[in-house]
Design goal:
Elements: H1 41-49, H2 53-64, H3 68-81, H4 101-114, E1 121-122, E2 125-126
Antiparallel strand pairs: 1-2
Helix pairs in contact: 1-2, 1-3, 2-3
Length: 148
């Protein structure tokens, strides 16, 4: 028994035992993974313009990040993508959990569809990434919702 105050004879009903020794390594076969290098803003923009959804997802992750280094790259990506946006509009919806953001996005997406536009699904809910009025309906929206 270890030398704990609870092991004193005046505490007859208590006893503190030594714990189980932890092994030095839980998984001896585990190989350390190298962290993938952060792509540059130019690489991300080039991938986005080519339709690479992996680069788009990485850019969205950087936009949502609170890390200053990520925010700097995200800002540069957005600035470099703006010339290719045509007459699109960015719509941001924020709020505390339970405020109805997803419900609002669903209603807006249905409104776009009912008025002749096109919508797509991204992740688990409809996302209105851009609303463009200069193009006719498209069969493949590639991650955008179009209102024509």
């Amino acid at each position: 028994m270890e030398n704990h105050p609870e092991n004193d004879p005046k505490y007859s009903g208590l006893a503190v035992n030594a714990g189980v020794a932890q092994p030095p390594v839980v998984n001896p076969y585990l190989k350390p993974r190298r962290k993938a290098p952060l792509p540059s803003a130019s690489e991300l923009v080039e991938g986005i313009l080519k339709g690479d959804v992996t680069r788009l997802a990485r850019a969205v992750t950087l936009v949502e990040s609170v890390a200053p280094a990520h925010q700097a790259i995200a800002h540069e990506v957005i600035e470099k993508c703006l010339p290719y946006s045509g007459k699109s509009r960015r719509i941001g919806i924020t709020g505390v959990p339970g405020a109805g953001k997803s419900t609002s996005i669903d209603v807006f997406g249905l409104h776009v569809l009912r008025n002749g536009g096109e919508a797509c699904r991204s992740c688990h809910r409809p996302v209105v990434g851009t609303v463009e009025r200069e193009y006719p309906r498209r069969q493949n929206t590639h991650g955008k919702a179009f209102a024509t």
